[in-house]
Write a structure and sequence with these properties.
The structure is a homodimer of 172-residue chains. With 172 residues, chain A is mainly alpha-helical. The first copy, chain A, has seven helices and no strands. The N and C termini of chain A lie far apart (56 Å). At the A-B interface, helix 2 and helix 7 of A face helix 2 and helix 7 of B.
């Protein structure tokens, strides 16, 4: 059995890059989890700023975007395609909510568990292979269109909405 | 002389990881540049939401944070230490602004040019070496405290404030 020091020493540079980007993703997701958990179901109805999206919409939006990462990163089938219409295609409050707050929280938790588990388990070199929205042929010409690029873009996207959630002043 | 195809083929996996994270950083910075450029000097005085930070403060805040990345990533001396007090230590509007909008924009441009140039030029494996806030000894035990971790955390941070800037409704 390898000691932890030996384990470290056999890591390749690619392994250490993969550890770094996965660690950063995990931290960004923990931060979002904490933010969403800080809102009661009633508070999810608040807007991030006057006239802007509700927290509820951002929870659905991030769930839908992350659910779509499963096939995009070739990590498996998505879980909640029905969230695309209300939380990606439509703007907030286009139609009455079809999903309850507890059900939406469950969708977020399910998607997070499946996605983040698969991300943590992906072998290092696999991050450098194509994502699902680029053909094998195009990827041959543009090798930067890899899974890593998706993870990085979605991390900035998560930060984007996290910054908005941080603005919410809870009503007493 | 190597053709561009041969250049690609001699890239190591670590090189391709480095290309990916630097590309993502560059995109996040281009996005922030575009947002800040979209505000007139007068509009920089607007708040991102009622009672929250002004755009002007976020411009100074991101300039100070990124300026500090120069020594933190061991990429050289910082350029504007005088921005720490008003934009990091103090909250917005603690005291009257000591810097004009054009001067603050210049600081942002100077810091961006130096930092982003050095980031793009860093050899791949250097991302896996320690950042300046960890000792050699501690780094030996915790190799994840590397320059890559700083870049990733600051990318999420940039996204965080980018999401806030996107909320500003410009007054006519």
């Amino acid at each position: 059995m390898l000691t932890s020091q030996a384990m470290t020493s056999i890591q390749t540079a690619a392994d250490r890059f993969a550890v770094g980007v996965v660690k950063a993703w995990t931290a960004a997701m923990a931060s979002l989890d904490k933010q969403f958990a800080s809102f009661s179901d009633d508070e999810l109805q608040q807007e991030i700023a006057p006239g802007k999206n509700r927290v509820f919409y951002l929870l659905g939006h991030l769930t839908a975007v992350h659910d779509r990462m499963l096939p995009l990163l070739r990590l498996g089938a998505r879980l909640y395609p029905e969230l695309d219409q209300p939380f990606l295609t439509d703007a907030d409050r286009t139609s009455p909510d079809q999903i309850s707050a507890p059900a939406l929280r469950k969708a977020w938790a399910d998607v997070s568990a499946k996605l983040n588990g698969a991300i943590a388990a992906l072998p290092s070199d696999e991050w450098l292979t194509r994502h699902d929205a680029v053909s094998e042929e195009d990827f041959g010409k543009e090798p930067a269109r890899n899974r890593l690029s998706v993870l990085q873009a979605r991390m900035t996207h998560a930060g984007f909405h996290s910054g908005q959630l941080a603005l919410v002043v809870k009503k007493k």
